[in-house]
Amino acid sequence: MSRLRHLLTLLPICLTPVLADYLGPRYPPPADLTSDESLVAASWANLTSTLQAYLSGIDQSAASSNDALSAIQNVTFSLGMFSIHDSAATEILQFHHTSAEVANAPNGTNQVDGDTIYRIASVSKLFTVYAGLLGLDSTDWDRPLTEFFPQLMETSNNNNNIVGHVQWDLVTPRALAAQIAGVPRDFLSLGEFLLQPDLNPTALGLPLLDSNDPISSSLPCIGSEDPACAEDPERYIMGVQNRPPTFLPWTSPGYSNNGFSLLGLVLANITGKTIDEIYRDSIFDPLDMTNSNSSPPIQSEWFRAVIPGDISYFASDSDMAKSSGGLLSTTQDLAKLGVGILNHTLLPPDETRKWMKPLSHTARLQSSVGAPWEIVRYTYADSGVVTDLYTKGGDSGHYGSFFVLLPDFDAGFSILTASTSAERLTIIGAIGDLVADTILPALMAQAAAEAESNFAGSYTSTVEGLNSSLTLSLNQSQGAPPGLAISSFISNGTDVLLTLPGMRRNLPNRLLPSIADVATGQVAFRAVRGADAPSVQVGPISQFVTADWFSVDGLTYGGLSTELFVFDVDSSGRAVAVNPAAFRVRLERTDG
Ligand SMILES: *[C@@H]1O[C@H](CO)[C@@H](O)[C@H](O)[C@H]1NC(C)=O
Ligand SMILES: *[C@@H]1O[C@H](CO)[C@@H](O)[C@H](O)[C@H]1NC(C)=O
Ligand SMILES: *[C@@H]1O[C@H](CO)[C@@H](O)[C@H](O)[C@H]1NC(C)=O
Ligand SMILES: *[C@@H]1O[C@H](CO)[C@@H](O)[C@H](O)[C@H]1NC(C)=O
Ligand SMILES: *[C@@H]1O[C@H](CO)[C@@H](O)[C@H](O)[C@H]1NC(C)=O
Ligand SMILES: *[C@@H]1O[C@H](CO)[C@@H](O)[C@H](O)[C@H]1NC(C)=O
Ligand SMILES: *[C@@H]1O[C@H](CO)[C@@H](O)[C@H](O)[C@H]1NC(C)=O
Ligand SMILES: *[C@@H]1O[C@H](CO)[C@@H](O)[C@H](O)[C@H]1NC(C)=O
After folding, report:
1. By three-state DSSP, how is residue 142 classified?
2. What is the overall mean pLDDT for the chain?
3. pLDDT tens by residue, 51-94
4. Most exposed: 26, 298, 330, 337, by fewest CB within 10 Å?
5. Are strands 367-369 and 360-361 parallel, antiparallel or unpaired?
6. pLDDT digit string, tens, across residues 206-240
7. Ligand 4 contacts CB of residue 311 (under 6 A)
8. Which domains does the chain have, with CATH numbers?
9. Which helix (H) or strand (E) segment is 228 a member of?
10. Rounded distance between C-alpha atoms, residue 333 and residue 345, angstroms
11. Which residues fall within 8 angstroms of residue 211, CB to CB, at 6 or more apart?
12. CB of 478 closer than 6 A to ligand 6?
């Protein structure tokens, strides 16, 4: 008894109102992205008309509002959404633009669509990690690289110089996948001045390299375009082994194409398969991605691909580059990938959830890094609520791409582009921003609208003489935090919102979804506190004790949390009853 009293006296402090919520969705994911009633379909129409305005150059006000978008007519691109709850989204929510350059190209298609093959550049890294998650034991991720490539021991053993040498025995597949191994970024041509045509080093203030230069003379492939350097793992490893690290492992994320070339070799070593077999056997075939490949198609099939400018960017193929940036895919196939991941077709739900978490921050509050997710923390302008986007981008040669998963909505989208324009990456980034700014508020609004029709309303006890009821509503007032608001909660004649600690905290209470069990038709929600109170202290330390995740499940009655509400839903997802767990009561839905 005294312990309960102690807890209750702490409550006013612990449960100070702050819109902190839990990580994840504010509503169950929307099921309708495509019907005439869907707010997502409406926003897609809005998006495509905005794109059309930029493309035609007619809407000068639109064109002048975003410089990057005003140049989109010169970029060929394919845009597509997908959702695990609305399979029609893949077909219906697509948009394609063919630039003059591609319409007149001598090779490849002259008109792009959902089945056009693009190079996806560094989106390949996502396939490499996915294949690893599907094919490796969990312990393989933490094995030192020296186990796979014993020759690296030489560098590790000489490790009295951690500034100058990578500690290869501390580099693991997991660190490579999370871009936090600190290994050199690139290998061969990318970024190497020695490979610039007509290089005059001294004009750039760089010294001439003498033949005894301790680094470059020990690297067989630096400054060389010998194809063996891109095909032969031994030569490849020799080329990176003695270069200095960017950081010590697990210090800061540092983008590394080389890290993914090495990860590809690790996968090949563990599975005993070639890199081509790995993608085909573990991902392309099981997800029916029939137009995806780890090599460009043969010439008679080029008509299915988009090939702007010089064919060399399309047709070149190097084994060592595949796991970092060598794959090819289509809008339709990337939708299959997205649905396959979000619907747990290959990787079990728990492993998928674990995969879609950050492994490190960046120096920017808005972005974190996973394996190899580029995680964007998107903030809605109206509510300040955050949705995490799990993205992977790519840009190489004449191709740029983004693949974006929105786990909170069980949906996502991809953007594939092809162009010789030097502005390609800026333009595709601007397209991505436009898609996100248009689609995310619509997904949130659609999820809210569906939650309103599925869950809002009155629930009442059918037990004779028992005065117990719950009313839920969607709060439409300006600035109201998202979630289902508890407008009233009477239990056995008592207004719980006025009396019960925890419920009482700060009106309005809101319900956020926590666990959905499709098999049994049970959907659990948890009550969180209401709106931000400006008076609340959210200092660097004090913010922790006012966060919802900190107080979750804090008050119980007979072992059941007072914040747990379990709904029974019918096959269409509509609630028929609610069970406020601690109250041991079933309240039947009484409205319509
Ligand atoms: C698009 O390409 C054409 C032809 O190459 C060029 O004249 C024009 O300046 C480009 N437009 C933009 C906005 O970059
Ligand atoms: C996701 O999986 C469920 C259950 O297997 C299935 O009914 C649904 O059609 C899948 N979604 C899509 C878009 O394929
Ligand atoms: C993996 O690497 C180890 C160490 O170099 C080697 O002994 C083994 O044969 C390799 N396995 C495969 C399948 O290449
Ligand atoms: C088109 O492909 C052929 C080879 O099939 C090649 O000779 C030609 O140079 C290519 N055109 C361009 C613009 O790359
Ligand atoms: C269309 O999008 C613009 C900008 O994203 C937004 O201001 C406008 O309200 C949207 N209109 C509709 C009908 O969604
Ligand atoms: C709706 O939100 C407003 C603004 O946050 C708040 O003042 C009001 O109490 C809320 N109403 C309900 C029923 O939750
Ligand atoms: C309702 O409250 C009364 C006392 O006011 C009590 O006798 C009764 O057992 C309660 N019923 C339930 C179901 O809690
Ligand atoms: C149920 O209880 C509430 C709160 O005490 C009260 O306002 C209401 O009149 C009661 N309803 C009935 C039918 O007794």
Report:
1. helix
2. 90
3. 999 999 765 555 456 778 888 999 999 999 999 999 999 999 99
4. 298
5. antiparallel
6. 999 888 887 777 676 766 667 777 788 988 898 88
7. yes
8. 18-128+273-450 (3.40.710.10), 455-589 (no CATH)
9. helix 228-231
10. 14
11. 217
12. no
CB 546 within 8 Å of CB 536: yes
Could you tell me the CA-to-CA distances from 18 to 15, 496, 532, 554 in Å, in that order?
8, 21, 5, 16
Query: H-type helices in 281-348, by residue range?
Result: 312-315, 319-325, 331-342
User: Is the Cβ atom of 467 under 6 angstroms away from ligand 7?
Assistant: no
Q: What DSSP element (H or E) covers 390?
A: strand 386-396
**549 C-beta neighbours (distance < 10 Å), count:** 11
Q: How far is the CA of 74 from the centre of ligand 1 (A)?
A: 6
Question: Using 50, 70 and 90 to split pLDDT, how confident is the model at 303?
Answer: very high
Contacts of 22 (CB under 8 A, 6+ apart): 512, 514, 526, 528, 548, 549, 552
DSSP letter, residue 259: H
DSSP label of 300: G
- Residue 561 CA to residue 392 CA, distance in Å, equals 39
Instruction: Tell the residue nearest (CA) to atom 14 of ligand 5.
Output: 43
Length of the chain in terms of residues written: 592
Q: Which tokens in the block code for residue 557? A: 């009655």
CA 419, distance to chain mean position in Å, is: 25
466 pocket-lining for ligand 8 (C-beta < 6 Å): no
Tell which one of 85, 87, 346 to mutate to probe ligand 2, the residue whose CB is within 8 A of the most ligand atoms: 87
Q: Is pLDDT of 42 > 70?
A: yes
Identify which of 37, 23, 44 has the alpha carbon closest to the alpha carbon of residue 91: 44
R_g of the chain computed on alpha carbons: 27
Predicted TM-score (pTM) of the model is 0.93
Q: What angle do CA 467, 470, 473 make, to 5 degrees?
A: 150
Which mutation among 107, 307, 313 tests ligand 4's pocket best, with the greatest number of atoms within 8 A of CB? 107
Collapsed DSSP state (helix, strand, coil) of residue 364: coil
Q: What is the DSSP string of 18-54?
A: -----SS-SSPPPS-SSSTT-HHHHHHHHHHHHHHHH
pLDDT(471) > 70 = yes
Collapse the DSSP code of 88 into the 3-class scheme (helix H, G, I; strand E, B; otherwise coil) and give the result: coil
Query: For residues 247 and 166, is the Cβ–Cβ distance under 8 A?
Result: no
Q: Please give the average per-residue pLDDT across 298-318, as a whole number.
A: 93
CA distance linking residue 398 with residue 307, whole number of Å:
8
Structural element, H or E, at residue 484: strand 484-491
C-alpha of residue 216 to centroid of ligand 2, in Å: 53
- In this structure, which ligand is nearest to the CA of 47? 5
